[in-house]
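Co-fold these.
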Amino acid sequence: MFDLNAYFAEKIERINAALESILKTTERPDRLLEAMTYSLMAGGKRFRSLLCAAAAEAAGGDLEDVLPAACALEMVHTYSLIHDDLPAMDDDDLRRGQPTCHKAFDEATAILAGDALLTLAFQTLSSIAAGSDQQAVKWLRVIQLISHAAGYCGMIQGQMLDIALEGTQLTLNKLKSMHRLKTGALIEVSSRCGAELVDANSSQIQLLESYAQYIGLAFQVTDDILNVEGDPAIMGKAVGTDKLRQKSTYPSLLGLEESKTFAGKLIDNALQALGSFDQKAEPLRAIARYIIDRKK
Amino acid sequence: MFDLNAYFAEKIERINAALESILKTTERPDRLLEAMTYSLMAGGKRFRSLLCAAAAEAAGGDLEDVLPAACALEMVHTYSLIHDDLPAMDDDDLRRGQPTCHKAFDEATAILAGDALLTLAFQTLSSIAAGSDQQAVKWLRVIQLISHAAGYCGMIQGQMLDIALEGTQLTLNKLKSMHRLKTGALIEVSSRCGAELVDANSSQIQLLESYAQYIGLAFQVTDDILNVEGDPAIMGKAVGTDKLRQKSTYPSLLGLEESKTFAGKLIDNALQALGSFDQKAEPLRAIARYIIDRKK
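Predicted complex below.
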């Protein structure tokens, strides 16, 4: 049986060490770097970077092959959380069990720390230029993939829609397509970057993309479920907020039990997409199972 | 005599056409894209992209060689203006003669439009991957240069300092080093990217860097001068705001006349740095002269 906890713990340690070493390259710590570090090292699940590493492993590679991408994905994800939490957006006070960045620092610092983490993601992705020309082609491609997924055709568009649609009753399809942009795009690209960086073949890439689409959606469905019945002490943030904000969610549209069934089905589909992969895809399978069992 | 107006007009037209075609790649226009377009196409001076093109020309190249970099520099610059104008930062209502982005739209949209333009800059810089491997090395290097200059060791750090130091009396050296980060870093990298993309030799790169340092500083000194005696109707924004905010500026530290002398000296130094360049550096020389003559 694959020991997911040990696998997660080891990878997270390596990812955190890499992130910390990037943040320590500056000459002198200051308030801006302090705010960036505060949010980036606040003990996130590292879901996107783990997915990137696990996809690389499934295709025969290793975390080391994709480390700059894994780090960049966490920076992009963290910047998006900092900005989404701002008073002008979701106005959240608590994130990962700590005051949000603008609460711990101030609004201007939070905006700039988010900007700086987004910029640092691309600095990290371009910092391996010294390698071979072929490596450069590969990393330029990863920058293309991540900037597209994170940008105005992906994650940022999703956040715009989420704000615009707050308080309106959505159809299930509209909800899905909003989440596909807001959280799905970055989750899908995490898996894709992992696969492309270790030269997965096109059939593998397609299957991994399909896998990532299912777990991306499942991740959002379970997020909505946790917002109904999760334990705020474990989650490190308030629950019941979706209902308060009259947000359309899977539980609000499908009911709680039906949402759980739906999430289970998505995970089954994700596992099926991995059918032709050998035991090197065990981490990806474990990640899929973890998504419905998670408590935070 | 080099006709700067005709030169500027022709280049700006090509840069604007390139920017517009990038913004038009999306399927359907929406509020986010509208806000991005509103700020990016608001008739900026295109100083950074022109500098990039002129540096490329001085080293024997052409605007076409550097067009994605020229566009990306304008996107990065515009995003920084949108975020700097936010209520949590400088709280400005007017920019380039129009309401600022958060005034014309709303705060959330302005934050996201800024984020999206920053992300689009890197998407633009990585979109030429289809070319040769050597091209990929070059563009990866440009991403490295721009992300470093725009990031927490450059422009964003400068904005942090600018906010932190507001209302305190600075020494001339502190003021210079703040501006070197806030506006200088991106101006310097504009020239550097232009030079590197057309394979300038290291001596040319060094001289162009020195030139860019002088004009970057001169640009800021004249900005401060215009904030004292500029015509708000020509400038499209309020004047006298630095004094109101008790900002340390060159005029406040040196006096108005001494500031003008200082700017003139910087321009002389910039022109001297170009001494060994032939007539292909005329656009760079014209840009240097324009800086002290400009009315906006």
